[in-house]
């Protein structure tokens, strides 16, 4: 009985120690990447003074002497608060979720690749003004500085990977994704495409309005656009 009692006490102590150790470990993982808003930061590439003030809700208010510095500071601040979300959405737009989350996300990746968001973003970037390109490059530099010099969010440890450098085209990707995500038109267009194969052109013209004067396609008419018969979500 004495031996059994000692074994039970030892097991109890080990369980308590494991729970205490687990608590401190999880607390460390949870807080190690939290930004310290009170510290001064030397962001490389700035040409003037930049001030980032946080209000009582931790919302940043950024003051800069020129636009290049402003966008660089915005990139740093956004990465400081939302790096994991930014990287996750970037992977969504590229159809690369399954690389970090497994084959369960394969259908999502196939759908996003069919939308060709990044291909369109590259075309938009190529046609953008030098001012827009400079702003996107400054923003990217701010994001990359944070990724290189500061602790990454715990999600990267959990999924065991590191984020890739942020590029100007990635910012345009997110705009394209938001445009697609906030509209239901794509589902209706697929339905009408399938309907057009079953109904005569005389009847279908009454269902599909002529929107040529309102459309601004990224791809020219010479570039074939893939429209799948079925999309598995």
* Helix fraction bin: 55-70%
Task: Return Rg in Å.
Answer: 25 Å
Number of domains: 3
The largest pleated sheet is described as: 2 strands, antiparallel
Number of strands: 2
CATH topology of the largest domain, anyone? Penicillin Amidohydrolase, domain 1
Distance between the termini: 60 Å
User: What would you call the structural class?
Assistant: mainly alpha
Average pLDDT number: 82
Q: What's the number of helices?
A: 10
Major sheet: order of its strands? 1-2
- Note the beta-strand portion: under 5%
Structural notes for this entry:
The chain is mostly helical. It folds into 3 domains: 1-31; 38-182, Orthogonal Bundle (Penicillin Amidohydrolase, domain 1); 183-233, no CATH class. It is 59% helix and 4% strand. It has 10 helices and 2 strands; from the N terminus they run H-E-E-H-H-H-H-H-H-H-H-H. The chain has helices spanning 2-31, 67-94, 98-101, 106-115, 117-126, 130-149, 154-159, 168-181, 185-196, 201-204; strands at residues 50-54, 60-64. The chain has a two-stranded antiparallel ribbon. Strand 1 and strand 2 form a beta hairpin. Helix 2 (67-94) crosses helix 8 (168-181) and helix 5 packs across helix 8. The chain is flat and about 95 Å long. The model is unreliable at 225-233 (pLDDT under 50).
Descriptive terms for the model:
233 residues; mainly alpha; Penicillin Amidohydrolase, domain 1; 3 domains; two-stranded antiparallel ribbon; 59% helix; flat; membrane; hydrolase activity, acting on carbon-nitrogen (but not peptide) bonds, in linear amides
């Amino acid at each position: 009985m004495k031996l059994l009692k000692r074994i039970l006490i030892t097991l109890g102590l080990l369980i308590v120690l494991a729970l205490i150790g687990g608590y401190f470990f999880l607390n460390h993982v949870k807080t190690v990447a939290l930004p310290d808003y009170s510290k001064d930061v030397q962001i490389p590439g700035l040409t003037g003074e930049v001030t980032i003030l946080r209000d009582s809700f931790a919302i940043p208010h950024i003051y800069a002497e020129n636009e290049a510095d402003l966008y660089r500071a915005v990139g740093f601040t956004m990465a400081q608060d939302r790096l994991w979300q930014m990287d996750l959405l970037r992977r969504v737009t590229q159809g690369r979720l399954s690389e970090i989350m497994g084959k369960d996300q394969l259908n999502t990746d196939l759908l996003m690749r069919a939308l060709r968001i990044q291909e369109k973003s590259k075309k938009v970037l190529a046609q953008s003004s030098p001012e827009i390109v400079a702003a996107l490059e400054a923003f990217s530099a701010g994001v990359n500085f944070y990724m290189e010099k500061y602790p990454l969010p715990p999600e990267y440890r959990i999924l065991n990977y590191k984020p890739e450098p942020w590029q100007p085209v990635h910012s345009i990707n997110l705009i394209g994704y938001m445009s697609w995500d906030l509209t239901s038109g794509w589902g209706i267009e697929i339905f009408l495409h399938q309907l057009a194969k079953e109904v005569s052109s005389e009847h279908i013209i009454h269902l599909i309005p002529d929107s040529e004067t309102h459309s601004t396609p990224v791809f020219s008419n010479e570039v074939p656009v893939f429209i799948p018969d079925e999309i598995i979500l």
